[in-house]
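hiii so my PI (J.) wants the whole complex modelled not just the main chain, which honestly fair. so below is everything: three entries, each one labled with what it is. i double checked the lines twice but i was tired so who knows lol
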Amino acid sequence: PAGQALGRPGGAGGGGGGELGSPGLGAAGRGDDLGANDELIPFQDEGGEEQEPSSDSASAQRDLDEVKSSLVNESENQSSSSDSEAERRPQPARDAFQKPRDYFAEVRRPQDGAFFKGPPYPGYPFLMIPDLSSPYLSNGPLSPGGARTYLQMKWPLLDVPSSATVKDTRSPSPAHLVNPSLWPSNKVPVVQPPHHMHPLTPLITYSNDHFSPGSPPTHLSPEIDPKTGIPRPPHPSELSPYYPLSPGAVGQIPHPLGWLVPQQGQPMYSLPPGGFRHPYPALAMNASMSSLVSSRFSPHMVAPAHPGLPASGIPHPAIVSPIVKQEPAPPSLSPAVSAKSPVTVKKEEEKKPHVKKPLNAFMLYMKEMRAKVVAECTLKESAAINQILGRKWHNLSREEQAKYYELARKERQLHSQLYPTWSARDNYGKKKKRKREKQLSQTQSQQQVQEAEGALASKSKKPCVQYLPPEKSCDSPASSHGSMLDSPATPSAALASPAAPAATHSEQAQPLSLTTKPESRAQLALHSAAFLSAKATATSSGQMGSQPPLLSRPLPLGSLPTALLTSPPSFPAALHAHQALPVLQAQPLSLVTKSAH
DNA sequence: TCGCCTTTGAAGACG
DNA sequence: CGTCTTCAAAGGCGA
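here's the output for the full assembly
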């Protein structure tokens, strides 16, 4: 069954043929062009790194394998080692190489659908897509899976057939809906966006949800709001479909994240149901993106304020009203905003859609990767999947994480601009609480972790299992090794701050990592050993590939690899890329072995 | 039908 | 300033 889902997307994977082809590479390539953002670029690289078409497929497969293996066996070692090695190494290297446009060009194929299919992840699409819709609103319905990957994002941008876009617009959310094909059964996240979807859409997703029905084809009419009829700013891009919200609002800013966000799911900030939004974030993106990227939302962002905005609760994408999600939005939009009598205000507030918190780096990552993971493994439970994702997160290289952190940062900025008055506190108490129990459980888990740690220290592993849901073993991966303690913070912290993605700081982080997370610790232990060996080998061997995987997270690897990768002639790399791929793949193994050694 | 579970990160609350 | 709590996404599962 799983296969099914994958299948499609996979097209990518599976098909082998697909590997290269899929790629959306081509798309990616384009994206780059479009993107043109400075920041973006880096991302792209990274993204590219992660996976490109071929690489993607390969990597994806690997990942899957890893995951599966891990799932299957939580066995620690393998999973850990394999993961790190397989996944990372290849990816990075590949990414780097693949990116090259030329390469893409070649790769590109006419197949529309194919494109999207491509590798699920390709890179992080971040690149350029500025889309933005923001999904802060909750409502989105959406889609399920959420699987959109960044990659998609790229694509969209690139290819985005106008038609497609149009469609999207039309069926805003529907886009997804519309294409059931996409969704279908499995959620196949990966797949995603079929052509229907706007390339961006995926990203936008959020918006889509929102968009929904009403939304007019933005393209067509550039910017009139369906609702208000107000003309929007000319560029959709600017607008950001994302924030549909205010549609009327003119200028909302696109959500930086938008692109990140996967479409399917909900948008981060979803729009109010009624709200309309631009569906085509993609369009918008460019301009906005760049601006966003640059981090300046200002113009758009700022502006937005006016009309709709509202600081207060307004209809904004992010806004979701739990209660009444839908209602509010549309209507409320301007009117509501306009503050009515206090009473009304209260009402609104009550109803008011609540603005969701901006997603943090990990959440963004989850959104993107969830689908993949789901596709890979049979598990469906989010809890199990999240564990896996957590593990994968740790395995990400700093750079990769940095991307997400940056995105998260932008998202927060955007969110703050959109909802200046909003505070996390606003959402407090909305969910039910579970406090103590949870804590207890946590504490228990912690204990377990500690125990695990102890074990680890001693060397044993085991613990993991505990965490995992008994049922699904498969996943446990993460734990596999790990288990252990967690101290997440550190790494994250390091990263976090680091807006600078690349920042090699990673090293700094690393240390932290050690302290913090359990896994990391566990990994550390492993890594440390491996690492040492790796270092030697690495330096001598020179190929990064090997190391990255192992070290990747914990250690400096991240930096290393990248450095290595980057250092080489980048573009030309393209050529290499192909070659490289194979090599890389091979490497992993070798690496592994090395590490083992 | 609702809340739990699970992950990481951010931000608020509290001491 | 440090620690703890809540929420963000997501979807199966149990009550």
